[in-house]
Amino acid sequence: MSLNEAVRVAVIYYSSTGTVFELAKTAATAAEKAGAEVRLRKVRELAPAEAIASNQGWSDHAAATQHIVEASLDDLEWADAIMFGTPTRYGLPASQLKQFIDTAGGLWAQGKLIDKIGSSFTASGTRHGGQETTIVALNNTFYHWGSIIVPPGYADPIQFQMGNPYGTSHTSNNAEVPPGEIELAAMEFQARRVVETTATFVRGRAARFA
Predict the structure, then answer these.
(1) How many alpha carbons lie under 13 Å from residue 56 in its C-beta half-sphere?
(2) Which of these, 16, 101, 152, 174, could form a disulfide with 125 (CB 3.0-4.6 Å)?
(3) What's the whole-model pTM score?
(4) Residue range 109-122, pLDDT digits in tens
């Protein structure tokens, strides 16, 4: 990219009942406000239609987000920075997001994911429901890709209220409690930090090789 181009951020998520979707939307909006070109993408649903129909919140969210474009490998290659969002599943990322990540082997083999900026966020139904381990597990992907992980850390006062230096996280009380003001502010900060770090890195590299 040239020194005058906006950095490109892909916010790629899975959400069953909408909690992670709210975080992803907030990240995408904050990244745009910070000057980035953004693609908000959901990954393909793998659960059978019967399972989705059996949960009103799940089926309502699926219907409400039909307009969101599904993620493709082109989104990974296009992006300067990738933000992954997922609910916890036994302290691990949801299989829907993992399946999408597993299709990226060709890009990895060609070295096309090296030096991407990476950052992760999550939500769980219960307190201590595996939020930190889920983010760490997602970040293992970035290690293998040769990406540069950018966590929020405690680099902003909001982090001392939200309390997760690995990435924004939320406890939804089994989808009954949406992300609140603190969680959304933390998500906004994480997205801004990703954009600012990406701009510093990518533009510095462009200037070096200009």
Answers:
(1) 1
(2) 174
(3) 0.96
(4) 999 999 999 999 99
